[in-house]
Amino acid sequence: MQLSRKTLAAALIALAMSTAGSVQAQETTLRLSNWLPPSHPVVKDIMVPWAEQVAEATEGRVEVQILDAPLGPPPAHFDLVSSGAADIGFSAHSYTPGRFTLTEIAELPFLTPSSEANSVALWNVWSNMLAEQNEHAGVKVLALFGHGPGHLFTTDRAVSPMSELEGAKIRVAGAITDQLVQGLGMVSVQAPSSESYELLSNGVADGIVFPYESVPFFRLDDVVTNGLRVDGGLYNVSFFFVMNQAKFDSLSEEDRAAIDSVSGEALVRMAGQAWDAADAAGLAALEGKVTFHDATEEERATIEEDANAIYDRVRAGYEAKGVDFDAALAMFREELEKAAP
Fold this sequence. Notes:
The chain is of the alpha/beta class. The protein has helices at residues 5-25, 41-57, 77-83, 115-130, 175-183, 196-201, 214-217, 245-250, 253-261, 265-286, 297-320, 325-339, and strands at 28-33, 62-66, 88-92, 139-146, 151-154, 169-172, 187-190, 207-210, 226-229, 238-244, 291-294. It folds into two domains: 22-99 and 116-146 and 238-279, D-Maltodextrin-Binding Protein, domain 2, CATH 3.40.190; 151-235 and 288-339, D-Maltodextrin-Binding Protein, domain 2 (3-Layer(aba) Sandwich). The strands form two sheets. Strands 7-6-8-5-9-11 form a six-stranded mixed beta sheet. A five-stranded mixed beta sheet has the order 2-1-3-10-4. Helix 5 (175-183) links the parallel strand 6 (169-172) and strand 7 (187-190). Helix 2 (41-57) packs antiparallel against helix 10 (265-286).
C-alpha cells in the first residue's frame, strides 16, 4: 500500500520532532548560582574545572552554567538549591549560624595548616559519621571543603602583647570566630567578606580574621599592617557544594554516576589544593606589607584557654544530636594526618 504525499510528509515531520525531542532529552543544563567574582579561586580553580569535568564525564549530555549573577545572597544559597530555585550552589556553613552544627568540627582552632588535609578530613568524617544526621536535607552533597587556616589582621593595632587587642573591633563571620574574638576581649563585627574593605578603610573595624588568600583578594593588603598567627590557624571555615536532590535524581543513571566520579573526594582534594595554592600566593603578596607575629608560648596558652570554650560548645552541639564528639574529633585528626600533603 502506497502512502499519500500528505501522509508521508506528516510521518517525516513526526519522526523529526521525535528525534529532536530525544536529543533534547539527553541534554541537561544545570544552573550554578555563584556569588563570588569570577577571579576568585573558588570560581576559577574549583567551580570552572569541575564544570568542565562534568561535561567531559557525561560526554556533553550535562552542561553546568555558572550564572553571571547570584540568585540570592550567600546565606540563602542552601535554601535556593534545596527548593530548586538553583540547581547547584555553594556557601559557607557559618553564614547560617546554628543550622550546621556538625561541620563546625572542621572550623576549630589549631587543626592544620593545610586546606587539602582539612577538606579531606571533613569529607571522610562527614561521610562516615555525620551524613546520617541529615543536616543537608533536600540536596545532593557534591563536596564539603575548608579554606586555609585563618589568622588575625589589624590596621594599626599591635597584636602583641595581646592586651593591645583589648576592645578592638574585629570583622568575623560565624559562631567560631565570633566566640574566639569575644573570648579574647575583642568586639566582633558580623559582616560578609565583601564588606571587609569598607569596614576597615573607614575605621568601622580595627581588624579582620581571614586566611592569607583573602587579604589581597579583597584589597586589604594596603589597609592591614599587622598579623597574628598560631600553628594550625586560629580558625577555619567549612563550605558546602550541593545540588538539588530532585534534579540529580532526574538525570539518567549513567549521568549520575558520571557526576559522582568527578565529585566527592576527588572534588574535595581539588578544592583543598586550589585553596592551598591561593594561600601561598596570598602570603607572597603580603611580603613587605604585613608584619607577622607568631604567637609566643604564653600567648598561645592564652588563645588555647579561650578555645576550650569553643571546643566545649561544639561538643554540646554534637551531644544534642547524639553524636560522639570525641570519637569524631579523633577520626578527624587521624584523617588530617593521612591527608597531610
